[in-house]
Amino acid sequence: MSKNRTKQKINWLTNELLKYCGPIFVTPSIDSYPAEMDAGTYALINTGTKHLLVTCCHVWDEYERQHDKDERAVLAINLGEGDCIAFNNPLAHRLDIDRDLDLVALEFGPEGIAVPHNKSWFKISDWPIPRSGKGEYIVTLGFPKARRKTGGTNVTFGCAALPFAITDTNDRSIAVFCDEENKQVLNDVKDCLAGISGSPAYRLTEKGELRLVGFAKSGSLESNASERTYRALADSPLGAHVSFTHASYLRQDGTFSR
């Protein structure tokens, strides 16, 4: 494949993924963006019966912590360019939260957005969501902290599309280690992974269709837990990794199976 064709394919994939996700963050107010904000990535999902926003727990927990200190603190999302909106009452939207999975699901549909946007809710037709396995290729898109620019009343978010080969899986997670297939990507982004927690990961079918398989999560791989042990390669340190919670834990009603 030529360089131009490869670039075109990457641009197409990035634009396609951008439709279904964006940055989610906690800030003192909707028109104030401090240099240090707790942020992650949200995924928009259409289950067939509900429209959801799924993200990681630590952003939710930080929102509750800041809101307890100051009721003016808001949980906000970016819709592209500089367009940001805040939830009036996030708790009223929450359907489920599971800190072991590092996921929280909010009921949130197009009717909740009163400004122009290009977002879509990724439609899932197969329930339960099928799992991906070792050796399969996936892609995720997140909004790394290193590509975020804040200043007073302005904020911009840069995105990164990251292709990976699944190194291993266990009951809870998909693991991507710094092995031969993932070394270049992980070396390129190792200093800017902060901010991708919650990012949806997809498998691309032979027909070019996206299939949701997981959500990027924070924290350790918990490799010492016997029921969650990974068979990592000897030259792939656990410290050099990205992990995803299986999307199969998400139910059609917006709750998580345990």
Number of helices: 4
Biggest sheet record: 8 strands, mixed
Structural class: alpha+beta
Low-confidence stretches: 219-230
Question: How many individual domains?
Answer: 2
pLDDT averaged over residues: 82
Can you give a write-up of this model?
The chain is α+β, with helices and mostly antiparallel strands. The chain is built from four helices and 17 strands. The strands form three sheets. Strands 1, 2, 3, 4, 5, 6, 7 and 8 form an eight-stranded mixed β-sheet that branches. The protein is globular.
Compose a concise summary of this entry:
It is built from four helices and 17 strands. It is α+β, with helices and mostly antiparallel strands.
SSE blueprint and pairings:
Elements: H1 3-18, E1 21-27, E2 39-46, E3 51-55, H2 57-69, E4 74-78, E5 84-86, H3 90-93, E6 94-98, E7 103-107, E8 122-123, E9 137-142, E10 148-151, E11 154-157, E12 160-165, E13 168-169, E14 173-177, H4 183-189, E15 200-204, E16 210-217, E17 241-246
Parallel strand pairs: 2-8
Antiparallel strand pairs: 1-2, 1-4, 2-3, 3-7, 4-5, 6-7, 9-12, 9-15, 10-11, 13-14, 14-17, 15-16, 16-17
Top keywords for this entry?
single chain, 258 residues, alpha+beta, Thrombin, subunit H, seven-stranded antiparallel sheet, 4 helices, 17 strands, 16% helix
